[in-house]
Amino acid sequence: MLQRSLFDIAFAGVWGRQMRFITGPRQSGKTTLAKMKLKEAGTQKLYYLWDLRSVRNRYKASELFFTSDSPAQRGAKLWVCFDEIHKVNGWKNILKGIFDATQEHYQFIVTGSSKLDILRQAGDSLSGRYFTFQLLPLSLREVIGQPRIEKSECNNPLDFILEQMNRKDTKVQKALEQLLAYSGFPEPFLAGRGDFQKKWSRDYLERVITEDIGLLTRIADREKLHDLYELFPEMIGSPISENSLASHLESNPVTIKNYLRKLQDFYLAFKIMPYSRNIKRALLKASKWYLYDWTRIKDPHKRFENYIAVELNSRLSAWQDLTGTEFSLSYIRDKNKQETDFLILKERKPWLMVEAKYSDVPIENHHIRISNILGGIPIVQVCFEDNVASQEKKNAFRLSASRFLL
Predict the structure, then answer these.
(1) Residue 97's domain is classified under what CATH number?
(2) With 0-12 CB in 10 A as exposed, 13-18 as middle and 19+ as buried, what is 215?
(3) pLDDT for 94-118, tens place per residue?
(4) Helices (H), strands (E): how many in the chain?
(5) How far is CA 196 from CA 30, 88, 192, in A?
(6) 83 pairs with which residues across the strands?
(7) Do residues 337 and 274 share a domain?
(8) Which residues span the domain enclosing 245?
(9) How many angstroms from the chain centroid is the CA of residue 203?
(10) Which residues of 139-151 are buried (b: 16+ CB within 10 A; e: fewer)?
(11) pTM value?
(12) How many structural domains comprise the chain?
């Protein structure tokens, strides 16, 4: 069974009594992660899927029904998992009542395939009772059996790059190729067959739109939402205009903006915004969007860029959870269409520039120019080719993905 980086992060004792909300794309491994924790704690029978009528009926009969399955013990808290409880009306009040009554003896994991925080409102009844963690698709480190992420990775960007340049493992390139071919979702990745992956990907989209978005939102025209998502593979890596999308889909920009938000809330896609401070003629608003299922992208160059975006997003989420420091992902593009694919921000300040290239080529001068404008932060050009590890200029490096992502 694949070990996940989030396991040690989310279930660390430093988070105290708080419930652990594990969110992320459908079938990314949230239930497996929770069951692994229950097995480690010896409380496998305290897993409850709230999609089941039997679980809901047990709650109606007794609010603290789970305590009869494993009574409280002196000196140790018992781990409990509530899966998909957010689909039940009044789920926040249900959790609040259970948590307040039993937090001295039980520790809770709550999992869901949508962003549970989208349902928060001012005066949230669960305020102060939980921490949220994201489980995203499999990373390269996870599939080669090296899931642990260290706090020291995000101290200094130059030290991070130099450390990655010296990493090498003969099995990594093959694992990278498998991820690009079969996605980072555990089931198709482990199956390792193209026909299975294609069928899985088609059915996956239908389930998310019909069962998740259809159940939890008021969107009526799901077909148009589907059509919007199908446009993304051709637009990967390019700034997206909501007005242009609205015209193409014969809709209006407000509707398209709402649809885009739903694609993000239910982990079908995510956006990054342009960074413009101190950069002349920079784009100010147009976002770039990436898919969690990068296998829907046929062009190998765009697929690789999308994959790098997901890996970076996952690593920054882990760094943020580990250190409490804010990390975010952005990009740089000016009105001359000169672009750097990714900019990592630490506490909203430029920290590291990352350019994704399928082949190993010299770093373009405009990246160096922007690096100097941003205070000389490092730029690393990450390529698909193996065995690339070189310094081109001061603070400018070329590196294989098989090294950079370890």
Answers:
(1) 3.40.50.300
(2) exposed
(3) 999 999 999 999 999 999 877 665 5
(4) 16, 13
(5) 21, 32, 8
(6) 49, 111
(7) yes
(8) 140-404
(9) 20
(10) bbbbbbebbebee
(11) 0.94
(12) 2
Helix (H), strand (E) at residue 201: helix 194-207
> First-to-last CA distance in the chain?
19
CA distances from 41 to 5, 35, 85, 229, 282 (A): 18, 10, 22, 40, 52
Six-digit token pair at 210?
Answer: 């019909």
The structure tokens 């943020």 sit at 320
Question: What does the alpha-carbon distance between residue 71 and residue 93 come to, in Å, rounded to a whole number?
Answer: 23
Within 76-198, strands assigned E span 78-83, 106-112, 130-134
Say if residue 195 is in the same domain as residue 275: yes
Say whether both 34 and 120 belong to one domain.
Answer: yes
Residue type, 208: V
User: What are the structure tokens assigned to 27, written together?
Assistant: 């079938």
- Which tens digit of pLDDT belongs to each residue from 211-260? 888 777 878 788 899 999 999 999 999 998 888 899 989 999 999 999 99
Residues, the chain: 406
Are 240 and 233 contacting, i.e. CB atoms less than 8 angstroms apart? no
CA–CA distance, 326 with 364 (Å, rounded to integer) = 29
CA distance 346 to 320: 9
In which region does residue 224 sit, left (phi positive, over 0), alpha (psi from -120 to 50) or beta (all else)?
alpha
